[in-house]
Amino acid sequence: MNAWEILGIEPGSDRRAIKKAYARLARDCHPEERPEAFMELRQAYEVALEQLAGAEPGIMEVPPAGVEPMPVYPSESEPVPEWEPEYEDGAQTNDHVSASPVFDSRAVETLCDDLASFVRRPLDEQSPEELEAILGHPLLEHMEVRDWVGLRLLTPFCVEIHEASFKQCPFSRNTLLALDRVFHWSANYQMMPGLPVDDFHVLLDGAYESQHSANQRYGWKWLANLLLGFKGSITRREWLLGFVCMILWVITTLNILQGIINLVPPQPYHSLLFLGVGLVGLYSFICLTIKRAVDAGVNRLGALIMATLFPFVIPLYIVGAPQQRADVPDPRLQFMDHLDLAYWDVRDQLPQSGFMQKVKQFYRRLSGRVFGKLGIVFVVGLALTPWVN
Predict the structure, then answer these.
(1) How far apart are CA 332 and CA 61, in angstroms?
(2) Do 337 and 168 form a contact (C-beta atoms < 8 A)?
(3) Known InterPro entries for this protein (predicted)?
(4) Which residues, in sequence order, are bridge partners of residue 346?
(5) Are 288 and 262 in contact (CB under 8 A)?
(6) Which of 33, 58, 144, 208 is deepest in the core (most CB within 10 A)?
(7) What three-state secondary structure class fits 218?
(8) CA 369, 373, 376, 382: dihedral to nearest 10 degrees?
(9) Rounded Cα distance, 105 and 338, in Å
(10) Burial class (CB in 10 A: 0-12, 13-18, 19+), 377
């Protein structure tokens, strides 16, 4: 069986692609209506994860042979079983002597309701402090309670994922990571008929990737490649930032050169210095514009020729809409949060960020040292201008 062909993805795809493909195909393969097709799809899914686990040490998504699977709970349209196994109402303490501890079932139900109510709130009302207080409940120290509450909590989670606005994930990264730390969803994958658990695990992967990349910042190396590199593609905001940096550098350098020239006797090579600064600035402008044209789907050589013959097309390159091309990665993705990307994958939507949200995401990715030193360059350039004149 070729698992990758059944899933319809390229061999060696990552876990998000595998889970997304499985979640998409599973919607058309109900286990009761098409059991054989569902079994084939499930086997392909497990084989793909096993092959990925073999290629990447430390990754294990499929339970090993001999491990008894967790009990399957009914779909969201059917009631989840009430709290029943060896638990009694009214018990206030645990019996540490007996094999089966006794808990207050009403307290467990209240705890589950509190968590379900928390995940149904709007994103701006999900207080991390309140969540930590709920997760610090003594009942969650016991594995039986923790497993049962974790399974019950999956239903409101999956409902919120598909009923919330597709513009923004209904859960923050900290909320998902805090809950996964307690209930261990990512380490204990469990199929639940009727619930899109695969989509939920895609979000968990996105939350961990978001945490991993939270400290990644674009600094001087990125800025130097932005101004002087000829390959790749950039966003409109990158072009604007690069253009402003280019202007600041040209003004500051010319002022410094002019100040030095005023202190020394005239030399024949002075004009060459100014010409060199101007050529470097022009080269930077060409690099920025050509990369912006590539993002708009224009060939580099064609963009250069057209810009030389018809300069009025340069603004069209700068504001051109990005085109999806297999050989050119989308430059916007580097400034987007992985959790948002995972949520848009789950909802089968293209990035839906608003203008201000895009600006904030772009700003958060840039190193503070870049802005600090650019500010110094700007101040130096302004300070030298009246002295030169």
Answers:
(1) 30
(2) no
(3) DnaJ_domain (IPR001623), J_dom_sf (IPR036869)
(4) none
(5) no
(6) 208
(7) strand
(8) -130
(9) 38
(10) middle
Could you say which residues of the chain have pLDDT below 70?
1, 30-32, 54-103, 189-195, 264-267, 326-327, 351-353, 381-382, 384-389
- C-alpha dihedral sign at 125, 128, 129, 132: positive
Contact status, residue 87 vs residue 105, Cβ threshold 8 Å: yes
Retrieve residue 133's tokens: 């207080």
From 334, 342, 389, select the one nearest 366 (Cα to Cα).
334
pLDDT, one tens digit per residue, over 90-142 is 444 444 434 445 667 788 888 888 888 888 888 888 888 888 888 888 888 88
Measured CA to CA, the distance from residue 176 to residue 207 in angstroms comes to 7
Please report where in the chains the tokens 């002075």 appear, as a residue. Answer: 270
* Interatomic CA distance for residues 172 and 169, integer angstroms: 7
Distance CA 83, CA 79 (A): 12
Chosen CATH of 1-68 out of 1.10.287.110, 1.10.1040.10, 3.40.50.1000, 3.20.20.70: 1.10.287.110
| Domain-wise residue ranges, the chain | 1-68, 71-78+103-211, 220-388
Cα-based distances in Å from 76 to 28, 35, 187, 309, 328: 18, 20, 23, 64, 42
Provide the token pair at 146: 């923790």
Q: Cβ(74)–Cβ(80) under 8 Å?
A: yes
Place of tokens 């009942």: 139
Provide the 8-state DSSP code for 313.
Answer: G
